[in-house]
């Protein structure tokens, strides 16, 4: 059966604010019905790496906090620590980064809890009927919350093509060890002819797997990857400004997407009817908000979407983006309405794998009906 996906555009007809439009959307879609009085409600977010400006604006989050409180819930904002070095790899830096990006109690009206604890080791082993995994490592605050509102900045992604609700749930709520399991099929290699020796990739590599080596005396050094250390997080791929690092899929390009969908299934395990989703198809940047930068959006802004099914929601958001022309000045400038903007930005990545697998394992359905609010 098709899932219902609701959306609102960004027009201000009748001078209604986007906050009011989002609230009406969430109520119509039943997102707030997941909250019962007394529930501990995790509002799952990506706080954005400092320097990135594409993440969800904090006032939207404050309104969701107020809506949860109005239903009698006890909201907290949450995300799990990252694998890569960045500024969100432990709870201290993660909280500092979140506050720097505006997710402060004074702004959002709720406390922040880093879901997998101080160093990312606080997780629960959740049994799932997956193909890659029978057990996944989910950040404990997400497991112990009674309900969840998943707020997603919908965008492109350098490893999964599309970064939507499935990605936010699966990669976002996997503990650091879980993230490592999801990434382990991807290994990069350096195109030495393009490498300028700038060292950016080595700076970002979380396990110091990259060194700069002078291969020809007197010439600039080249990046060299130590495959004994590399676990395929892909951070070096996006940090290279010279397209000098390519991804080599050890198995198939779909593995990381399927694993992410399985982690998403683990993240919602035991929460039937207790998870609602809001996706912001705005600032649709080509890459993840994990980077301290964001490129020109692939298309113009589309709107805000809401549903109770993450697979249907991601499908609807991706198709809505692809119906638009590529934005002038973006990576996909010149692509026509109907052409795939995500594939245009990341040509090796067929992003539908995460949806197909999500559907296969019972996370949701790709079939949807779209309702305008
Ligand atoms: S970031 Fe790119 S150009 Fe710079 S050292 Fe690494 S591979 Fe070479
Ligand atoms: S993919 Fe490997 S080399 Fe690249 S940043 Fe990650 S661990 Fe380091």
How would you describe this protein?
- With 373 residues, this protein is of the alpha/beta class.
- The chain folds into two domains: 3-182 and 253-372, LarA, N-terminal domain (Rossmann fold); 186-249, Alpha-Beta Plaits (2-Layer Sandwich), CATH 3.30.70.
- It has helices spanning 18-29, 58-70, 91-100, 105-108, 140-144, 165-173, 176-183, 200-204, 235-239, 255-267, 310-322, 341-345, 353-360, and strands at 3-8, 40-44, 74-79, 112-114, 123-127, 135-139, 147-153, 155-157, 161-163, 186-190, 210-213, 222-225, 245-249, 275-281, 303-307, 368-372.
- The strands form five sheets. Strands 4-3-2-7-14-15-1-16 form an eight-stranded mixed sheet, sandwiched between helices. Strands 5-6 form a two-stranded antiparallel ribbon. A two-stranded antiparallel sheet has the order 8-9.
- Helix 1 packs across helix 2, helix 6 (165-173) crosses helix 10 and helix 10 crosses helix 13.
- The mean pLDDT is 93.
- Bound molecules: iron/sulfur cluster (SF4) (2 copies).
Ligands bound to this protein structure: iron/sulfur cluster
How do the strands of the widest beta sheet line up side by side? 4-3-2-7-14-15-1-16
The unreliable regions are: none
CATH superfamily of the largest domain: LarA, N-terminal domain
Subunit organisation of the chains: single chain
Computed over alpha carbons, the radius of gyration is 20 Å
Count of spatially separate domains: 2
Q: What is the class of the largest domain in the CATH system?
A: Alpha Beta
């Amino acid at each position: 059966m098709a899932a219902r996906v609701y959306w609102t555009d960004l027009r201000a007809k009748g001078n209604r604010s986007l906050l009011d439009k989002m609230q009406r959307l969430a109520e119509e879609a039943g997102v707030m019905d997941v909250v019962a009085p007394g529930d501990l409600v995790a509002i799952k977010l990506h706080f954005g790496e400092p320097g990135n400006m594409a993440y969800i604006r904090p006032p939207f989050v404050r309104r969701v906090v107020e809506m949860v409180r109005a239903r009698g819930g006890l909201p907290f904002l949450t995300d799990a620590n990252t694998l890569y070095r960045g500024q969100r790899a432990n709870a201290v830096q993660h909280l500092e980064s979140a506050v720097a990006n505006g997710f402060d109690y004074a702004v959002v009206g709720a406390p922040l809890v880093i879901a997998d604890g101080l160093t990312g080791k606080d997780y629960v082993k959740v049994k799932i009927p997956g193909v890659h995994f029978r057990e996944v490592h989910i950040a404990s605050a997400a497991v112990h919350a009674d309900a969840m509102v998943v707020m997603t900045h919908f965008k492109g992604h350098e490893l999964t093509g599309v970064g939507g609700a499935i990605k936010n749930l699966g990669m976002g709520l996997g503990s650091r060890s879980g993230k490592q399991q999801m990434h382990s099929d991807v290994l990069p290699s350096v195109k030495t002819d393009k490498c300028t020796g700038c060292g950016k990739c080595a700076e970002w590599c979380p396990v110091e797997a990259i060194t700069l080596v002078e291969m020809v005396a007197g010439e600039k050094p080249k990046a060299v990857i130590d495959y004994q250390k590399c676990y395929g997080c892909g951070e070096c791929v996006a940090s290279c400004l010279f397209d000098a690092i390519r991804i080599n899929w050890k198995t198939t390009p779909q593995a990381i997407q399927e694993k992410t969908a399985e982690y998403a299934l683990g993240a919602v395990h035991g929460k039937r009817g207790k998870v609602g989703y809001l996706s912001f198809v705005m600032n649709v940047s080509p890459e993840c908000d994990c980077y301290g930068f964001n490129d020109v959006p692939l298309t113009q802004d589309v709107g805000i979407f809401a549903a109770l099914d993450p697979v249907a929601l991601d499908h609807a958001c991706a198709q809505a983006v692809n119906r638009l022309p590529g934005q002038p000045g973006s990576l996909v400038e010149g692509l026509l309405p109907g052409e795939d903007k995500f594939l245009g930005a990341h040509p090796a990545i067929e992003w539908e794998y995460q949806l197909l697998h999500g559907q296969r394992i019972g996370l949701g359905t790709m079939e949807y009906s779209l309702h305008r609010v």
